[in-house]
Design brief:
Layout lengths: L2 H16 L6 H18 L8 H12 L2 H15 L9 H12 L5 H34 L7 H22 L3 H13 L4 H25 L4 H9 L1 H22 L2 H14 L9 H6 L1 H10 L4 H30 L5 H10 L3 H10 L5 H17 L3 H25 L19 H6 L1 H12 L8 H19 L5 H37 L1
Helix pairs in contact: 1-2, 3-5, 4-5, 4-6, 5-9, 6-8, 6-9, 6-15, 7-8, 7-9, 9-15, 14-23, 15-23, 17-22, 18-19, 19-21, 19-23, 21-22, 22-23
GO cellular component, one term: plasma membrane
Main location: membrane
Membrane topology: Multi-pass membrane protein
Length: about 500
């Protein structure tokens, strides 16, 4: 018999009884389960197995099914509100442990968890839009979500929607209901999705990496996981401080006062050469103040950061997987389907559609449009399109040269060079950029953002044709498209920075 577990069970049971009216149902249920477990362990009825041996057995038993398990739990975490009962971090850590044993691919696991978590959030968001706040008012009290709390949450989402989605991903009960509340409070999808993608990706990667790095000593994993509350407290404290600074400096008079204080402090021999730098820094400061906060002013940067994150992960992630294992998770299966689905008529159509990403066509089109933009003095748009295409070309050539992957056997059209990444798919992403520029600059198209969605179909079709024509593996097209997305997003972020600095300089001169 072990005294400490029994004393812990007694203390926890007393706390649950004393606070039963103020604790939410999931906490009560979890507390009762913990009490029962401590009692069973302390009385000797349950003997804990060797955790390291148990994990090794789990990894061997699960094998490739780990992808499905982790993906399903990441989806259900918010898509079915499972996170109200069981924390999803546990599944992520276990998945990371299995990946650490070399049974499955770490990069693929992160991609599966990231995608599944985002899809679960989108399902929960859509349920919130359809069922509305009435559903929460009726059923929320069972989980401590009263009408008063709902009103407070809706006000918080209205003012700090992006932060609520991003930070809430790391807070158990908030993570489980935040997407639903975002939908029920009518947060626009274009505002919800970028923050959600960034939060889901960081959450999945963080906890999977914990399991991956420390898999040989699961006690270390548990120690790190238990310290999550301390880490979260530190993170929240830092964020609160940053929020205060941002709010303070968002007012022009406060920024001006800070500038004057810094200029006064530098008004002495040997330091005056730094004064022009302080004046110039007003531009970058305004840029970050305007765009790191949620809302319409920060949405452009947040969206580009989400695109950059997904694209970079796809490009380098598949690079790592191919270098280590030779193939993506389902490359061979998809290649087999392409062979089985062969049809002469479909092949002819695919040969036509695949030219929408042909290098000669895309380079010529981008060059012509870039020159036209320069003639009309749309400097930044020309920079994004031209520099983005040059950087995309560089990413394609870099991958082909360093990875030197063999193409699939039995290609239906001629193709030269190595397979990874798909240049056709990468260059076809420029259609999306062209559509975005058209929506911004052509008066008749302004506000019609659905055009960008339609343009996005083109690189998807081009990538599908490359796989069907058996000149690329599926991972080639995903890596190529991701690399191009990352390149154009990075150039666009630079353009945003330049624009704000330029506008600030003009205002300073006019003032």
């Amino acid at each position: 018999m072990k005294i400490l577990p029994l004393l812990g069970a007694a203390a926890l049971l007393f706390l649950l009884i004393f606070r039963r009216r103020k604790l939410e149902l999931p906490l009560l249920i979890g507390g009762v389960l913990v009490v029962a477990g401590l009692c069973a362990y302390g009385s000797g009825l349950v003997v804990l197995p060797n955790l390291e041996e148990l994990l090794t057995t789990i990894g061997t038993t699960l094998g490739q099914w780990t992808y499905l398990l982790v993906g399903a739990l990441a989806f259900l975490e918010t898509g079915a509100f499972v996170g109200l009962i069981a924390p999803g971090e546990t599944a992520m850590i276990v998945g990371g442990v299995v990946a650490g044993q070399g049974v499955i691919s770490l990069v693929t696991l992160i991609g599966v968890a990231w995608f599944a978590a985002t899809m679960g959030d989108l399902v929960s968001y859509e349920l919130g839009r359809r069922l509305g706040r009435e559903f929460i008012v009726k059923h929320g009290p069972r989980f401590g979500m009263t009408a008063e709390r709902l009103e407070m949450v809706e006000m918080f989402f209205d003012k700090h929607g992006g932060k609520a989605i991003f930070i809430g991903r790391f807070v158990g009960i908030v993570r489980a209901v935040a997407p639903f509340l975002a939908g029920s409070s009518r947060m626009p999808m274009r505002k919800f999705l970028p923050y959600d993608i960034l939060g889901a990706g960081l959450w999945a990667t963080t906890f999977i990496m914990i399991g991956y790095v420390f898999w040989q000593s699961f006690g270390t994993v548990l120690k790190v996981a238990k310290q999550g509350a301390l880490g979260l407290g530190i993170v929240i404290s830092v964020i609160v401080g940053l929020v205060w600074v941002v709010r303070h400096l968002s007012k022009e008079e406060n920024r001006h006062a800070l500038e004057q204080k810094m200029l006064a402090a530098l008004d002495r021999p040997g330091l005056r050469f730094l004064q022009p730098l302080v004046r110039w820094a007003q531009g970058p400061l305004r840029f970050f103040i305007a765009r790191i906060t949620p809302g319409t002013t920060g949405l452009d940067l947040t969206t580009l950061l989400a695109v950059l994150a997904v694209g970079t992960f796809a490009y380098f992630g598949y690079w790592v997987v191919i270098a280590e294992r030779g193939y993506g998770a389902i490359d061979k299966q998809v290649q087999g389907w392409s062979v089985d689905l062969y049809n002469p008529a479909v092949t002819t159509v695919a040969e036509v559609l695949t030219t929408l990403g042909a290098p000669l066509l895309m380079f010529t089109l981008v060059a012509v449009v870039t020159v036209a933009l320069l003639i009309r003095r749309h400097w930044l748009e020309a920079f994004v399109l031209g520099a983005g295409m040059v950087m995309t070309f560089g990413s394609v050539q870099l991958g082909k040269h360093l990875l030197d992957r063999q193409r699939p056997p039995g290609a239906l059209v001629d193709a030269v060079g190595s397979s990874y990444p798909s240049g056709h798919t990468a260059y076809a992403v420029a259609w999306v950029v062209l559509a975005a520029i058209a929506v911004r600059l052509i008066p008749a198209l302004k506000g019609k953002w659905w055009i960008i969605g339609v343009a996005f179909i083109i690189p998807v079709l081009v990538g599908a044709t490359r796989v069907y024509l058996q000149v690329h593996w599926l991972s080639d097209t995903l890596g190529g498209g991701g690399g191009a997305m990352a390149c154009f997003a990075l150039i666009a972020i630079i353009a945003l920075f330049v624009k704000v600095v330029r506008d600030t300089s003009r205002e300073t001169q006019n003032g």
